[in-house]
């Protein structure tokens, strides 16, 4: 069974963030992220865990319980812009 520290590390690496970058996004010291990833922090606190989840674009459930809910892949920015431009092009003239 994966620990929360292992899930944080895996998600951080997948997001190509350093511990320092994640720490800055969460508003904690890099050492705090390091301790969490090494499972040296018994209870990092709900606000820190929520901040980590938000910074890594995960739900709390995914981070805490390891229950990755099936999510549709997010369209890229280019795809979203193209869809918006298409919708605007089809809009009737006023």
List keywords for this structure.
single chain; about 90 residues; mainly alpha; 434 Repressor (Amino-terminal Domain); 6 helices; about 60% helix; about 0% strand; elongated
Outline the structure in words.
With 94 residues, the protein is mostly helical. The chain has one domain (4-90): 434 Repressor (Amino-terminal Domain) (Orthogonal Bundle). It is 60% helix and 0% strand. It is built from 6 helices and no strands. The protein has helices at residues 4-14, 19-26, 30-37, 46-55, 60-64, 77-90. Helix 2 crosses helix 3 (30-37) and helix 2 packs across helix 4 (46-55). It is elongated. The model has no long low-confidence stretch (mean pLDDT 86).
Write the layout of secondary structure elements.
Blueprint: H1 4-14, H2 19-26, H3 30-37, H4 46-55, H5 60-64, H6 77-90
